[in-house]
Design goal:
Length: about 180
């Protein structure tokens, strides 16, 4: 009797595990990286030239300790960088090599929360690409932002920048949507 009960419990556990694996493999949750995209965020903003960062700053953020006037700044800002000259205007440095014959950068500026602990440097939030599609030369990017720590994670608004290094595409516009988890 005890042996049959053990076999029954094992069969139920195996069934539950099989259902769990099937749910985890749901295609909707898997990002298909069809444009060979790598996303950079966080301290990479320090690699931008000061003039470029100021020119692309967004509403409600500070620059060199001064709050920028809200009525003069957009809520978001997108820049595409497709050649070495544009890159040199924007960056002092970058974490990887870029072959502008085959690759491009998309920079998405927005006002957000601090994503790294100022004391420890530990990340407080994590971004992940959820979806990316190209429709009639309009690039649509969906990103999730997930807290990595428990408890309050709010901060004064700060300038954030998501940088997408990807295959060179012929695009007319870029739309980025952030889903907060």
């Amino acid at each position: 009797m005890k042996n049959k009960l053990t076999k029954f419990i094992c069969a139920v556990v195996m069934l539950i595990m099989s259902v769990g694996v099937l749910c985890a493999c749901n295609k909707d949750d898997v990002f298909e990286n069809k444009y060979n995209t790598t996303m950079y965020y966080g301290s990479v903003i320090n690699d931008l030239n000061e003039e470029f960062l100021l020119a692309n700053s967004t509403r409600g953020t500070e620059y060199q300790g001064q709050l920028l006037p809200d009525d003069t700044r957009p809520i978001t800002n997108v820049q595409t960088i497709c050649d070495e000259d544009e890159f040199d205007v924007a960056f002092k440095d970058f974490p990887s090599q870029i072959n502008f014959e085959k690759e491009m950068l998309v920079l998405y500026f927005f006002s957000g929360s601090i994503i790294e602990n100022l004391v420890s440097g530990e990340k407080i939030f994590e971004y992940q690409i959820k979806d990316m599609s190209l429709n009639d030369n309009d690039l649509n990017i969906v990103v999730t932002k997930k807290p990595l720590v428990e408890g309050p994670t709010g901060s004064p608004l700060t300038q954030e920048c998501l940088i997408f290094k990807m295959d060179k595409l012929n695009i007319d516009s870029v739309k980025v949507k952030i889903i907060y988890l």
